[in-house]
Structures are given as C-alpha cells and as structure tokens.
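Researcher: Next sequence.
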Amino acid sequence: MIRLALLVLLATPALAHPGIGIVMDSHGNVYYTDLTQVWKVTPNGQKTIAVPRVHTHELYVDDQDNLYGEHLWFNGERLNTWGHYVWKYSANGLFEKIMPDRAGFSTDFSFVHDHAGNRYRADRDRECQTIYRTSRRGPEELHTRECFGKIGWLSITREGDLIFMQDQHRLRKMDKSGKSKSVGFIASKGTMGLWDDAAGNIYTATYDDRTVRRFTSKGEMQEVYTTNWPWAPTGGLAAPNGDLWLLETNPQNEVRVERISKNGVTTIIQ
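Model: Next structure:
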C-alpha cells in the first residue's frame, strides 16, 4: 500500500513524496532534505542539521553558495488546506524567509535556475503542458511553444539545458531557445531526480526499480547503480571529483545518502 501511494503521488510532482533535493556548494558541502529538516555533510564526512523544521522537496544552491528551499505544511483535515513559505540559508549561516507565509502551494518561485538567473517552471494545470521562464529582471514568459503530456520534475544542466521526463518514460532535453529532443527512454515508472555531470552525461533516479541510469551525449543508456532493497534512489548529484551522491528512501520514509566514489567505494551516510 505504501508503494502504491508513492506511485500515485509521483504523478503530481508538486506534491510528490519523498524529496529529491540534494545539492553541493562550491566548497564540497552537500545539503539534502529528509522532509523534516535539511542536513549538511562536510567534505570530511561530518553531518549536522543546517536548516531545522522545514518540509521541502527541492533545494537550490546559487553561485554564491546560498541555499534555497521551502516549508510546506498541511492545516489539518477539518480545513483541508495547505500553506508554505520560501526560505534562504545564506553562505554565512543566516536563515531568512524570502517569501512570507502564504496559503496554498508555491506557484511563483522555482528552484530550477540557470547561471544567468533565469527561473523555469512547468505549467501542469492544462492537458497541453508547457514550460515558462522568468528572467532576472523581466516578467514570466512562455519558454517553448511545444506541447507535452505529463511533465515530471524539472532540472537544469551545467550548460543551461532543461531536462525532464515526459509521460513518465521519455527523457527530454530542452535548449535555451526552447527546442527539445528525446534523449532516452525508461521502461520503469517513478523517475524522480535528474542531474548531469561535467562530461554532459544525464543521470536519472528511478524509484520503481531502484536504478540510477546514465545517458551519454551519444544516446547510450547505462545502468550505473542499483540500490539495495528496501532503499530506492530519489535524487542525486555528480561531484566535480567524479563521486556520485545519491539521495535514497525506503517504505518507512526514512532517508539516507550514499556516496559512490569514482573508484567504486561506497559510503553510507544515515
């Protein structure tokens, strides 16, 4: 029943459980969410709570090493409403709300940013789903005229290309002009986190079959890692030194991180 519930939630990325947020700053510190707080893992392996008491699914770290997330809460079955705020955890350790407590879900802040300061979001409210862009100083505008079926989690590569799953199975890449192409197919459902490495390879974390896949620039797919049951990957990142970091969860909603070195040595952080 837990597995079925997760699959139902995965169909709606804005509400999906568990989180996909795991990021690294320029100093090699890794931050990840367990939906109760955000943890920090230093390069020497020390683990501490960076941001307590926040329920955030996504994280974003900017070029100045400031960390961003949200806090989402449910107001109980009687009211049956939600609330949220958006927060910033500065590189100097200062926590502040950058968007105040508001009703409902966030629709005007995106955790998908490129290095030029553009923000991207998927409009999933219509049958013809598409993607919008907000520049650093300009209003929101349509980024592409392409029409898609169900758009999964959005992510962005080092080069500024958007990557996302279409209709749960098709991996797509969209360039800065808004043109997209298919770069891979995954038979299993439940793909959540997407990321790239310095060589331009794209990685996917698929909850259903517990597999991390890598798609090369030549269109080749490689299964690079499978987590041990009951753990399943939901997010990840490729470090500059070649290490692979994976955010994982289990049916009890526990969270852990695995670091797989480029030499194949695995370290579990739990």
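Model: The longest helix spans residues 2-10. The chain has one domain: 2-269.
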